[in-house]
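Standup notes
- DV: blocked on the single-chain target, sequence here:
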Amino acid sequence: MFLPRDQVAFAFGPAPVLLMGGAPVHGLLPVVRGAADGTLPVCDGWRIEAGVTMLVVDGPGDDGLLIQGAVDVDDAREVAAWSAAVQERAGALVLSLDELPERPDWSRLLNDGIARGGYMKKA
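- DV (later): unblocked, structure below
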């Protein structure tokens, strides 16, 4: 399955974050519930591979997603920095939502059960 660049956003935090809106794998991912101790929820059985031109979110069995990477030179800088952070941290927090928010409310995304996904290790 494919997800175009306009349906994803990249963020930086304690771990790199991939936000996906309307992803075809949304219903296959676990509901995100924040941990009281501040640890990131883990998305067992899923892996991420990040590159500048493409990203892969690989799930169990045949489940997975190909995500379009950078669309121009300025975008390539952002995606390259984010991909480097994924390599450095050996994974990323992947959050899937019905729609990509204009401004993420991190507390709500991680605690209210509206996001699906979790921390995915680098493939």
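- Follow-up: Residues 17 and 93 are 5 Å apart (CA to CA).
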